[in-house]
């Protein structure tokens, strides 16, 4: 499994897209939003290079976002050829809140102990409707088997909305 990213990545407020009163958001604020967010949008790349975007649920665990998908779904098929992904979350209003964009590489999670911890995280966050068993390197649920992926941030962007709007970039060491 890839190492957990540093707790405090290099942080920079982009003045081109920020109010003069804005300050760079700390990574801990972004993590709190990632932990609380219920819906994420996953962008993958199709074999013909067209983007594919789909909503899904995800959990923040051990320094990374985790999501699951059926092995025959478009996103799983896309990830076989290109592991580069973007996960986004936030609100659809301009005047308040924050939006987050996390860029990284999707890595399969197959370790039984990690899968058990992630299954508990899903049930804890989303309730009993999202209870998974753990099979041979996969989640097992009512819909069959699901592949589990880990996305450690490579770069993340935070967009603070409201009067002192700002764009923060977090860069993680490779």
TrEMBL record:
Domain Pyridoxamine 5'-phosphate oxidase N-terminal: start-end pairs: 31-127
Keyword line: Oxidoreductase
Any one GO molecular function term: oxidoreductase activity, acting on the CH-CH group of donors
Cellular component, GO annotation: cytosol
Entry keyword Oxidoreductase: yes
Keyword Transport: no
Entry superkingdom: Bacteria
InterPro entries xref list: F420H2_bilvrd_red/Heme_oxyg, Pyridox_Oxase_N, Split_barrel_FMN-bd
This protein's name: Pyridoxamine 5'-phosphate oxidase family protein
Taxonomic placement: Bacteria, Bacillati, Actinomycetota, Actinomycetes, Kitasatosporales
């Amino acid at each position: 499994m890839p190492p957990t990213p540093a707790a405090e990545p290099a942080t920079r407020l982009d003045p081109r897209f920020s109010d003069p009163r804005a300050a760079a958001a700390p990574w801990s604020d972004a993590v709190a939003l990632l932990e609380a967010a219920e819906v994420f949008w996953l962008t993958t790349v199709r074999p013909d290079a067209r983007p594919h975007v789909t909503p899904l649920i995800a959990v923040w665990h051990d320094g990374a976002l985790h999501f699951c998908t059926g092995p025959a779904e478009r996103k799983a098929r896309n990830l076989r050829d290109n592991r580069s992904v973007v996960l986004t979350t936030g609100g659809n209003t301009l005047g308040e809140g924050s939006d987050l964009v996390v860029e990284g590489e999707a890595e399969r999670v197959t370790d039984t102990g990690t899968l058990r911890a992630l299954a508990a995280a899903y049930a804890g966050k989303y309730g009993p409707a999202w209870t998974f068993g753990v099979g041979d390197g996969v989640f097992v649920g009512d819909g069959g088997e699901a592949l589990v992926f880990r996305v450690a941030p490579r770069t993340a962007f935070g967009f603070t909305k409201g009067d002192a709007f700002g764009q923060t970039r977090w860069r993680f060491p490779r």
